[in-house]
Amino acid sequence: MRTASKTRTRKTRTSKKKSRRPPSMTMRGPRTTRLLPQRSPMTRLKGAAEPLAAAYDQALLDLDGVVYLLHEPIPEAAATVAALPGLACAPVFVTNNASRSPETVAEALRGMDIQAKASQVLTSAQVVASGICQHIGEDGTVLVTGSAALRAAVEDEGMEITDDPKAADAVAFGYTPTTTWRDLADVTIAVRNGAFWATANLDATLPTPDGPLPGMGALVGAVATALGRGPDMVAGKPELPIYQAALERKRGGRAIMVGDRPDSDIEGANRVGIDSLLVFTGVASPRFALSLPPEQRPTHLGWSLAALTETHTAPQWDTSGEAVLCGGWAVALEKGAMVLSGSGDSLDGWRALCEFSWALNDESKSERQFELRPIGPAAEKLLE
């Protein structure tokens, strides 16, 4: 029996020496259960061996949080936008804001040294107007509640504007800070009398120096409460119309959406079926991205808009299906915690963590944040 015991011990040690698993992936404690037995889980995040934008004909760029932040340009934005034509990728500046015309948006961007033409801007006001025209035709009459830019967009489609809610074939509803109870009442009357109701977006709040304040979604909610139903059409992200309008500008091409809001920019991209780049210059952080639900997960991660001009490492599952490798990093599960080890580019570490966390959440059908446990100084620094 002692001989057999020694033999077993010797075999165990030999097995450990021959293991091809890198030290950074070695499990300690109880053996973990594979996430998906018999095969490695599907990788969500994609790689790019060449500058990312070179794989696409169009880059749909959100504005606040991506190109600028509270009217201050993101440092890398101007150089990145200028580089896109050289990569055969056309920028389209996409905004839910219906209060500014394309000309005004382009002028503001040029004031930040960002190359932009009005023809490269797509606003939710333009999408509202075109959607209404498709529904009621150029001979229809429209009640406009919103900015001068929204009125101009409706007029550009050739439709007549009316102030009589009972004479309106459609309602174009956009945000202005001067909206009154009478305005909301007129929208309600028009829609109750059969008018087609299109609104710029459903953004619940607006960012201001005083913190989030009621936005378009709050105004829509007031009217919807009176009517007992919502709008017939919502133009802005994450709804489909604004993406479809952008894709119409280059039919048959490939587009990527770049945004900082997973619940708006990224979710809309997933709905319409295009790739997306989540950047961390706005509201989202890498740690926040770990618990994103499937519909809000991007295909690429980047520190900023400059990621369009960079290559991207694709995370890969090891052959056991128990660990994710990306660059010089490895992530595995140990005693209920996600263990990060290795070193290298910090974004590669977050790519590995996101890939692993998403798989765990899919397996457990949850959106929880797992404990993160670093091994080694590089991992400790990344998770500070």
From TrEMBL:
One of its GO terms (cellular component) is cytoplasm. Pfam families: GNAT_like, Hydrolase_6, Hydrolase_like. Residues 326-383 form the GCN5-related N-acetyltransferase-like domain. Residues 1-21 have a biased composition (Basic residues). Residues 1-36 are annotated as: Disordered. Keywords: Hydrolase. InterPro entries: GNAT-like (IPR041065), HAD-like_sf (IPR036412), HAD-SF_hydro_IIA (IPR006357), HAD_sf (IPR023214). GO terms for molecular function: phosphatase activity. The keyword Hydrolase applies. Signal peptide: none annotated. It comes from the Bacteria. This is HAD-IIA family hydrolase.
